[in-house]
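Final report, results section. Input specification for complex C-07:
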Amino acid sequence: LAKTTQPISMDSYEGQEVNITCSHNNIATNDYITWYQQFPSQGPRFIIQGYKTKVTNEVASLFIPADRKSSTLSLPRVSLSDTAVYYCLVGAPQYSTLTFGKGTMLLVSP
Amino acid sequence: DSGVTQTPKHLITATGQRVTLRCSPRSGDLSVYWYQQSLDQGLQFLIQYYNGEERAKGNILERFSAQQFPDLHSELNLSSLELGDSALYFCASRRADGNTGELFFGEGSRLTVL
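Structure output:
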């Protein structure tokens, strides 16, 4: 499984756009990039998944450059309720022994 | 609500004891995953079952075992408990259709070993 590297923590203010970058230099051809969000004492929740270029859904966008060695989760206009840990996972979906790293703790302040 | 049900939500027990955690996956999901989350270790993959068969093993101790039953619910058995086993144990499920990595997690079972 490709190893991922994310910042340990990030701070932001309400209404700002937050970009969290994940490095995955040894990503394999069949690997997808998936992001999860976890609130304290709750199970992680799927945010978005992509393979290349850009993916957008109702809560976030995922930008993946051509070499796929990194990816950026973009959260538009964050609110206090976006304070959570965000995990970047890389792997082939059908072989999902998905490994969660330590994630990025995002703190949104008023 | 993810559709994944875990029981019990909280469990307090003593060292040396044995406990069983139960998970009911989302309707139609064939794959069940167990994860352990402690304060200093993050979210650790333990084991995966697919349609009753063990598919993958992670950092699961020999004192721990799991199984998936014909009705697809799963149980995680933890024995000879130690203080360090205190953690949140999550169950997750997915349909395993090969085209998505999305896991649906339950709310977890918080185990406290005294």
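Chain A touches chain B at residues 32, 34, 36, 38, 41-46, 49, 87, 89, 91, 93-94, 96-103 (CB under 8 Å). The two ends of chain A are 38 Å apart (CA to CA). This concludes the modelling results for the funded period.
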